[in-house]
Design a protein that fits this description.
heterodimer, A: Rossmann fold, 2 domains, 8 strands, B: alpha+beta, 16-stranded antiparallel barrel, two-stranded antiparallel ribbon, 4 helices, 18 strands, 16% helix, globular
Amino acid sequence: MKIIHIILVSLLLGMAFNSTSHAQLKVETTTQDLAAIAKAIGGKHIDVNSLTPGTRDPHFAVAKPSMIRRVNRADLLLVIGAELEAGWLPSLLQSARNSKIQAGQSGFLDLSQTIDLLGKHNVPVSRAMGDVHASGNPHYWLDPRNGIKIATAISQRLAQLDPANINDYQSNLKTFKAGLEKKYQQWLSELSYLKNQPVIAYHTSFIYLAHAFGFKIVDEVEPKPGISPSASSLGKLIRNIKQKKIILLIMEPYYEQRSVKYLKDKTGIRIAVLPQSVGAKEHIKYYFDLFDAIVKELNNKDSQ
Amino acid sequence: MSQRQQPLLAAVLLNGILLMISSSLHAADKQTPIEQKLRDYERRISQLEKRQQTTTNTNSSSLQIGLSGLFSAGASNADNKELAKLQGGGHDPNKNGFTVQNVELSLSGTVDPMFDAQANIIMLIDAEGETVVELEEAFFLTRAMPGGLQLKGGQYYTEFGRRNVQHPHTWSFADQPVILSRLFGGDGLRSQGVRLAWLMPTNWYSEFYLGMQNAKGETVSSFLSAEGEEVGGHTLIAREARGSGDLLYSARWLNGFDLSDNLSMNLGLSGLRGPNASGYTTETQIYGADLYLKWQGTGARGFPFVAWHTEYLQREYEAADPWQANHETLRDKGMFSQITWGFTPGWVLGLRYETASASGDTSTDPLRDNRSRISPNITWYPSEYSKIRLQYNRDKAEHFKEDTAQSLWLQVEFSLGSHMAHTF
């Protein structure tokens, strides 16, 4: 009996503790990129957390119990959408039993809805094509211009949920937008050597980056999205690299590097391992940092 | 849909007509207002097309449909009759040659703001070659009950331990642990009823489940199961539920902790209590503890990872024969411990060890004898939607005269349709 009392009392205390910190909006995001942009807009008015770390491929996250608890208490959930989180978000939303953040509610914001997605398939998609997202390529945060669209949508939603601080959200957005527009011009000029150049990517995740900086992704190391390269597919790639005189291969840090090293040995192609997300490396804390790091890596002509 | 397409169609037609007019006029005069009008129409068409695309994207029905098929081929030094006893799970590969383990049609979605619902219909081909169709699960779940509560009702797997609720396509091994087959029967513990789950307002993940279900049927084999069969030498009688006291009650307390960014742990305790068909007042109690520890690195596709899953189960089965004074409590216990190592994207090595035993003289009873099994395996996932697995079982069962049964199973699985959930 005593033990039951102790458990009940401690649970009640736990509830009391949790209800004291209600000053800030609790915002959960599926990736660190969204968390970084939300923080830039929400500032001190929001408490923002990313459900997955930037060191991981967000497509392959799992709905861990700790996430259920966090989503259960969230006031706003920001997601990338376009099927990126298809493997874990539906079950997470079901387990979290929080009516505020279900799709269609004001506490749920799918940012892919605010973006003109690239790589849409208007013909029926077959899985024989590999892991193709029919509704468009979900890696859109890698275009800084989309960062502005994301920030605008977040600012509007925060203003809707917390009208008392609307001025702060709007002025933060203005600062963010002006800063990013200026930086974008700087990044463009730093990467001018890449303009119209053919480039190879490991996975189909850099089409927005290519779009933003004017280079062309002509082939991928994966023969089909999500399918590991084979000896014959690498052979084909080597011929392609030599024929089209491709000088650069870009990839995320979490893919294996054995096949790209093999490509490098055979063709001398330069390999740039690009951070794909805020948090992919410890010093990448803000959305601006991400492109600073990417541009630095792309300009680092002695790398690998 | 068709209504929405009409303006688009009309606009396309109009555009075609205007194009013809304009090309005929173009030769005569280069700067006509028609050209400007044309540009205007083109802009409007592209706007319409854009709207069309966004509506088709958001229009997708919330019904998720998936079909998974699980097949195996294998060989063993035990004959098919023995294999049927050794491989006690309803979805286990259980004969020399080919087995259709499980073909599962899964339908799920959101009903309305109040409810989610799910149904799993399975088909399999049994040892006699008969096709069996079963309504494995069909249940609703509430979406927005206050206070962290969630109600589930219908036909569903009882939340007991971690393994019982897993569907065959998420298994890390080709077959079901021995102790689960013994206590819950070949198809896992599932029945009709309701359960309430409470996500507790603690600083870690903590959830409490309380349920009641019908205690009668083949899928609740430790309770009011099949008349005429035997448990520990006692013939089961026909016993009906006569009140709420004759239902199966279940409780589970599950806790989850993130020990670091890469390491997470689940700890659960479960209990069951219900009537059994050994006598008119006899009762069964089952307890279990489960531990799951997963380390996940930061490579592609969720690799590398190491996951350790251990469960211990124990049953106290009150047994009697009607009108005889041979009342006794049969005790069964067992555990399994398995470790899976995803060493490189797409490839997983696994090792499972299990034991099971029971009180009394059980040496000739294939459901209660001393048993131990060790199963190494290797699985290749060409994509998220298929897998190929090779598993070796080295099985020691007291009732099996040749002492050690050795089997090799090759398993292939595919899934079609909606994206399967990534299990933690």
